[in-house]
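Action item from last meeting closed. Structure (183 res):
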């Protein structure tokens, strides 16, 4: 009976030794920064530091730039999320109906923006919608438009996000459609 208790104890020690690095990493990279952030959020630093409670949070909530950022984020989500769900589903339904050879080609084409580095994507879109981009040269040659500094910027950003990420959802929908029986 005594040996069994020792073996359980040894197994527990081994288990703790194996899990210790993960627990330590969790505390160092998640718990500690969270606690320090809360500490700094309720303190005010000038010549001396002192406790201000929720005053910092209230000043951020009353800040016009913060409110505008929240409004823009919510508008982006309202415009982006439905399109991010519906368009990939429509793409997957269309691709699911074609032959396997063409299916692989179209899947690759729609996944290509996902694997392109972001810096290359920025360069591509700048060459399309930038002040010296293709759209300005072809359509607005006489008076180029700075698209990012217009009211259309929100729509352009949504289009770019959808172009970059729709292929990812499309693959999930294609996988789900492949498991649905033909009958």
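Sequence:
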């Amino acid at each position: 009976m005594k040996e069994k208790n020792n073996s359980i104890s040894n197994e527990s020690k081994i288990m703790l030794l194996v899990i210790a690095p993960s627990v330590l990493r969790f505390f160092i990279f998640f718990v500690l920064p969270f606690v320090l952030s809360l500490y700094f959020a309720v303190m005010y630093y000038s010549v001396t530091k002192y406790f201000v409670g929720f005053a910092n949070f209230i000043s951020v909530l009353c800040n016009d730039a913060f409110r505008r950022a929240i409004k823009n984020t919510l508008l982006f989500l309202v415009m982006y999320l439905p399109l991010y769900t519906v368009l990939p589903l429509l793409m997957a339904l269309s691709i699911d109906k074609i032959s396997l050879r063409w299916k692989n080609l179209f899947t690759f084409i729609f996944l290509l923006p996902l694997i392109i580095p972001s810096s290359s994507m920025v360069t591509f879109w700048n060459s399309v919608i930038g002040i010296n981009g293709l759209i300005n040269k072809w359509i607005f040659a006489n008076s180029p438009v700075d698209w990012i500094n217009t009211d259309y910027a929100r729509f352009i950003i949504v289009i770019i996000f959808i172009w970059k990420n729709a292929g990812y959802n499309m693959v999930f929908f294609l996988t789900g459609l492949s498991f649905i029986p033909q009958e």
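Note appended to the action item: The mean pLDDT is 87.
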